[in-house]
Write a structure and sequence with these properties.
This protein is α+β, with helices and mostly antiparallel strands. It has one domain: Alpha-Beta Plaits (2-Layer Sandwich). The protein is built from 4 helices and 9 strands. Strands 1, 2, 3, 4 and 5 form a 5-stranded antiparallel beta sheet that branches. Strands 7-8-6-9 form a 4-stranded antiparallel beta sheet. A hairpin with a 6-residue loop joins strand 7 and strand 8. Helix 3 crosses helix 4.
Length: 189
């Protein structure tokens, strides 16, 4: 993780930034799957948190070795996004960078959906599932998210992204096909 590239969304009157970020990130996901890349990570340096401001920001930062980032760029995965994004140069990570994990978080946020699922799976009555799953189970998620389409299932879903605490030393490890890891860190600056 000694190099990075920033991809910044351009303002667009027809498409809001979260929609464009979803398209950009979905394309990156497909490219990482194609490359079988487990050594490329991402971060969202301008993300916002909070119930009312769960926005990924306008910058997608891709981290990795310089040659791996160049290989990724050579796949042409940005085709169709060039009008909507500015692709920066591949730069070395600043010496003073700290590190943090960037990982996926999943939440059980909808009590009604959980109840319907339990009724189907366990053949329980509505009364039984209301007792088992109270309204208080719902969580108010404050993390930024991106709407993506899975390359394996084709389903669209909200990918909630959590930036872990800052730490002084990097942790080596593998990244998934979304450029996320619960243990490996990326530089943060």
């Amino acid at each position: 993780m000694d190099h990075y590239i920033d991809i910044r969304l351009r303002p667009d009157p027809d498409f809001p930034a979260p929609i464009l970020m979803g398209a950009l990130y979905s394309k990156l996901h497909r490219a990482l799957v194609e490359l079988a890349a487990d050594d490329i990570g991402i971060s969202l340096p301008a993300h916002n948190t909070g119930v009312q401001a769960r926005h990924p920001g306008e910058t997608l930062r891709v981290h990795g070795a310089a040659d791996r980032i160049e290989t990724l760029l050579a796949t042409g995965w940005l085709k169709g996004m060039r009008d909507h994004a500015e692709v920066g140069e591949v730069f070395p990570v600043p010496d003073n960078a700290v590190h943090r994990t960037v990982r996926r978080r999943q939440f059980k946020t909808n009590a009604d959906r959980l109840r319907r699922r339990r009724m189907r799976r366990h053949n329980e009555s509505e009364t039984e599932v209301i007792e088992a799953i109270p309204e208080s189970i719902e969580k108010r998620v404050t993390l930024p998210f991106i709407q993506v389409r899975s390359s394996s299932t084709g389903q669209r879903f909200s990918l909630f992204i959590e930036h872990g605490p800052k730490q002084d030393t990097p942790e080596q490890g593998r990244f998934n096909s979304y450029g996320l890891s619960s243990s490996a860190t990326v530089p943060w600056f």
